[in-house]
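Input sequence (199 aa), recorded before submission:
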Amino acid sequence: MTGYWNPLPTARRHVDSLARPAHELFTGVWEQRNWRNVPGPFYAAETDSLAIGRTAAPDHIAYDDDLGGGFGFEFVYRQPVNAPETEALIDGCRMELYGGYNWDGDEHWTVEAVRDWWRNRARVREWAVAIAADWGADTHPGWGDNADPRHLPHYHDAAQGHRDFVAYIDHGLEGYLRGYLFWLEQRREPRPGEALPRL
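Predicted structure, token format:
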């Protein structure tokens, strides 16, 4: 992707068509956001540990292991760049019981904060590689009840999300973030041919 597409108008229209109002759906607190969230308007803070957001938005939502021994919290590993992706991400957010997502990232991210996240991307990449290898395996000694073979497809899908995250960090995320920097600086989408800021 070159440039930036603002998903929030589409997101607001989609939420307006739903039974659950935005103030109930998006209650995540910026200060509690998961450090793995990629910069952008959407992020997850403290979510439940059911790990079902990927059933609606596998191209955008992944799970961490912060609770130990299994699934922890959700996070946004890829921001939406068109209407169908935006609707899918909203639907993934709706599946989360605690309303732990939010869409006010534009009010908090700064140019320097985005650049800091990008400079430290090796940390999240290293984590994603390691957990993909763990959750992508066929056995999980020490996981207790979570080692039940019936859970393996869920873990394997989660591991695919981590591999997709690594691939996105390596190819694609830099272009998106440069467009997002333009948005943060100008508060408009870049026109064709306009130079984008460097990370």
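Checked by second reader. The radius of gyration is 17 Å.
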